[in-house]
Amino acid sequence: MTVITSTPYCRDSKKIMRFETFKLTDYPPSLLETFTDQTLEPGPSVTLKCVAQGNPLPQIIWTLDSGTIPENTRFRLGDYVRTGRDSTEVVSYVNITSVRPEDGGLYECEASNDVGKATHSARVNVFGPPFVRSMSNMSVVAGETLRLQCPVGGHPIETIKWEKDGVRLPLNHRQKVFPNGTLLVRNIEKASDSGPYKCSASNADGITAENSLHIKVIVRPLIEPFAFPKSLQTGQRFSVLCTVTEGDPPIRIQWIKDGLQSFLASAHDGVRSVVVTPFSTTLVFESLAPEHRGNYTCVASNAAGTMSHTAPMVIHGMA
């Protein structure tokens, strides 16, 4: 960002405006003030505060056990800008009135701008029976790592466990349950890892709370490789098939030539794309011409991601 300032000075009894230009360097957020772990009795009010600086001025968001802050009248979120002699800071806070056992959990503030981000988290424990907040269903891409945090309130908690289809986890080397209630599933698979998951928390008195969510594992498209024959001639009819062998529907398939997505709508006469099935598309050339040579890419995309395959077309007998 470039800033122009004007400084008046006098010369020969005349006021002259002198303009100076300087540049303010963008830099990522840093947290100047944060909050600490605390264990409380039910009843009092609690304030959690984070103060951040950065350029551009950062935005601060709050989460509780990786989810949104509860929406009720006892929770109040706010922020304001504080300007000092040397810096401008964002002050963000969460006020909790009449704190309850179910308000306990891992609170996190994240300050972010276009350059980067900074985060801080600390746990608030409130004495009382176990409580497990509701969890939103999730979609996870096959092959990635699933991380689930059990949103537990109440204190003290003796055990936290996860189950899938009524069986306690972990079941294999890809799964791990940490003492803090976090479930980790590496290289997640659609066949074995999709389905309902339940988290339960218990105290020493045998009081248990639980809640569940459903995990949907989605698969990226996979394209069967194709190639153009080396013997193509001008005037010849030809077609090439792009088939998506894996991936969850709906799948969108499109053709690109030399990086141009709009080549089918341009002046390339005699070329059309024909949908064969929901998972395959044919590119048809009614009569090969010199302008048809180039690199052709089939792109398949769904909610899990995008896959592409490119092959060059060489045409002989060009004028």
Automatic annotation (TrEMBL):
Q: Which UniProt keywords apply?
A: Cell adhesion, Cell membrane, Disulfide bond, Glycoprotein, Immunoglobulin domain, Membrane, Repeat, Signal, Transmembrane, Transmembrane helix
Q: Where is the Ig-like domain?
A: 29-125, 129-214, 221-314
One GO cellular component term of this record is: axon
What SUPFAM superfamilies does this protein map onto?
Immunoglobulin
One of the protein's GO biological processes: homophilic cell adhesion via plasma membrane adhesion molecules
Superkingdom in the source lineage: Eukaryota
**Bilayer disposition of the protein:** Single-pass membrane protein
Name of a matching Pfam family = Ig_3
One GO molecular function term of this record is:
cell-cell adhesion mediator activity
Subcellular localization, as worded in the UniProt entry: Cell membrane; Membrane
Q: Which CDD domains match?
A: IgI_4_Dscam, IgI_5_Dscam
Q: Which Gene3D superfamilies match?
A: Immunoglobulins
Q: Where does this chain mainly localize?
A: membrane
Q: What is this protein called?
A: Down syndrome cell adhesion molecule-like protein Dscam2
The organism's lineage is: Eukaryota, Metazoa, Ecdysozoa, Arthropoda, Chelicerata
